[in-house]
Amino acid sequence: MKGYLGIDVGSVSTNIVFMDEDTNVLESLYLRTNGQPVVAVQRGLKQISEKLPPHTVVRGVGTTGSGRQLTGIVVGADAIKNEITAHAVAASHLVPGVQTVLEIGGQDSKIIILRNGVVTDFAMNTVCAAGTGSFLDQQASRLNIAIEEFGDIALRGKTPVRIAGRCAVFAESDMIHKQQMGFNLEDILAGLCEALVRNYLNNVGKGKEILGPVVFQGGVAANAGMRRAFERAIGMEVHVPKYFNVMGAVGAALLARDAVSRGVPTRFKGFGVADLEYKAGSFECDGCPNLCEVIEMAEAGRVIARWGDRCGKWSNALAAGNCS
Amino acid sequence: MPVRVGIPRALLYYYYFPLWKEFLERLGAEVVVSDRTTKGILTRGVQHCVDEACLPVKLAFGHVQNLVDKGVDFIFLPRMVSVAHREYICPKFLGFPDMVKQNITGLPTVLDTAINQRKKQRDIHQFTRQVGAALGKGPIQSWLAFQRAWETHQKYMGLLEQGLLPEEAMSVLAGKEPKQTADNTDLTVAVIGHPYNIYDPFISMNLINRLRKSGARVLTADNLTEQMVNQGVKRLPKKLFWTLSRRMTGGAFNYHDQGKVDGIIHVAAFACGPDSMTGELIERFIRREGKVPFMNINLDEHTGEAGIVTRLEAFLDMVRWRRTAV
């Protein structure tokens, strides 16, 4: 069997998909990154190679997400793309004619507007991570409920409580206040979903024309309460695709397929990278007052990449090949 | 030995440095510029500045500190009130010399003569006379020095209008060959923002060079003539009385209306009042027509580049994708 790998290394989850040559997703994995992107990728590659039939040929690899550069170096990627493009590519491939993509991940949320299959506009949340998956995670653990149950409990809420969604800190104190007043959990969670959706539409979706079909993806799309809150707020059906939580990886695989389509051989180093030892380290360069934090990646004891220097002194030294 | 006058490489440096340099040199001074922005300069600025100030003002504090270290005799911080009829420069510029004098110790003499041309263009001569007097020169010599310097300024503006960016234009003025910009660009992007944000590679996280490396030609509002800017700003129902905001807004509208760019990026500094207004203004007008892709980028003290890289990549992907689809 031949196919393509897509790897999306986000702040919270690391997702890997294997797609055959007809772009059917055969295998998909959703793992927690736990702050160790390389370890997560290695674990993921190992798991997925065990699931695939022997003699599977990987024709191309694409990486995306905030860890895309790092991962791209580790696995030898053919396409390294930002997550906005990857999500848009995946959504328009799996849901032809999609005009709006709502995406909420662990640390960021974005809206992508497509018209006639082309991205015409997008926005990402600014510095604040209010209203993203990690906030929901945190609230679920504070209330001692599993994040997987969050959505179903919220769906049972009949009269959602009004909660301030502008800022995660305010939302939390508002929730505690409402709890102490005696509102039940279902209504509070339903209210939290509505508050987050309100904040998202206000902040990220500001001024964008939301037209159907609307696709909701990213880890938070698993939360049925959030989906219902979106449907209520925009008055349209919100479609959650089958691979909603690995859409970035699906996009990366599609982009990899595109990258090698012109007969370029893949740069994939093979599933063997799962067993190599990778070590990331950093040091502060004192060559000038910028004091850049240079990050160094070593594969089996040999430095394979450096980045983070503004002037290129360290990264170029390596590219030129005159560095041990 | 000539007196050494320091000019911070911050705020309106990118508009007026050639003018100030020539003017001060003709008054017999040696001009010293602060070093390029580094993490060290920014950190010192943030430490000494009031916390409510915007990022560019904090940075300018760091540059003043840097000049203090260099042991200059004067620091040139003209109090910029107004440079155009019935318009103003941001009030933080007006108060900047006072903020510096209150917060930085060990300062040499600060030349903080006011420039206020709100009523009449020729009110500049009050300024030239006072600066000349501070450096021990008479009114006529000061006036002549300013006339010569103004000619250089006109030459500088001319270079900008030819499409050079400030640093490039300054090196041409200094007699260097203009650097040949690579031809491997397939699209043109207008970067709209305050000069001290977009032209400082540290603060903008190298935005302009990143765009160029990704195959985009970069134009800014400063590559347009005053007339073109005013043409652009005409579509607003009311006059904008901040000079810099008028330039940015007019520039964005001109590029949009002339169809000369494939995308527009607005760069705003966190905590900048006028930016939050003009950014919104530009965005609304441009979105209403929906012809040119638009993106807003917020800058602050963070040095993590991932956010900006992701947005720029996605923006260029979008611009290219949109173009192939037409």
UniProtKB/TrEMBL annotation, chain A:
Organism domain of life: Bacteria
Alphabetized SUPFAM superfamilies for the sequence: Actin-like ATPase domain
Entry's Gene Ontology molecular function annotations: iron-sulfur cluster binding; metal ion binding
Residue runs in coiled coils: none
InterPro entries attached to this UniProt entry: ATPase_BadF, ATPase_NBD, CoA_E_activase_dom, Dehydratase_Activator_Redct
Pfam family, one: BcrAD_BadFG
Record domain ATPase BadF/BadG/BcrA/BcrD type: where: 5-256
UniProt entry keywords in alphabetical sequence: Iron, Iron-sulfur, Metal-binding
Keyword Calcium assigned: no
Cofactor annotation: [4Fe-4S] cluster
Record's protein name: CoA-substrate-specific enzyme activase, putative
Upper taxonomic lineage: Bacteria, Bacillati, Bacillota, Clostridia, Eubacteriales
TrEMBL record, chain B:
InterPro entries noted in UniProt: CoA_activase_DUF2229 (IPR018709), Dehydratase_Activator_Redct (IPR051805), FldB/FldC_alpha/beta (IPR010327)
Domain of life according to the entry: Bacteria
Molecular function GO labels: kinase activity
Keyword entries, A-Z: Kinase, Transferase
Ranges in coiled-coil conformation: none
Pfam family, one: HGD-D
All residue ranges annotated as the DUF2229 domain in the record: 4-223
PANTHER family linked: BIFUNCTIONAL PROTEIN [INCLUDES 2-HYDROXYACYL-COA DEHYDRATASE (N-TER) AND ITS ACTIVATOR DOMAIN (C_TERM) (PTHR32329:SF2), BIFUNCTIONAL PROTEIN [INCLUDES 2-HYDROXYACYL-COA DEHYDRATASE (N-TER) AND ITS ACTIVATOR DOMAIN (C_TERM)-RELATED (PTHR32329)
Protein name per its UniProtKB record: Predicted nucleotide-binding protein, sugar kinase/HSP70/actin superfamily
Species per Swiss-Prot/TrEMBL record: Desulforamulus putei DSM 12395
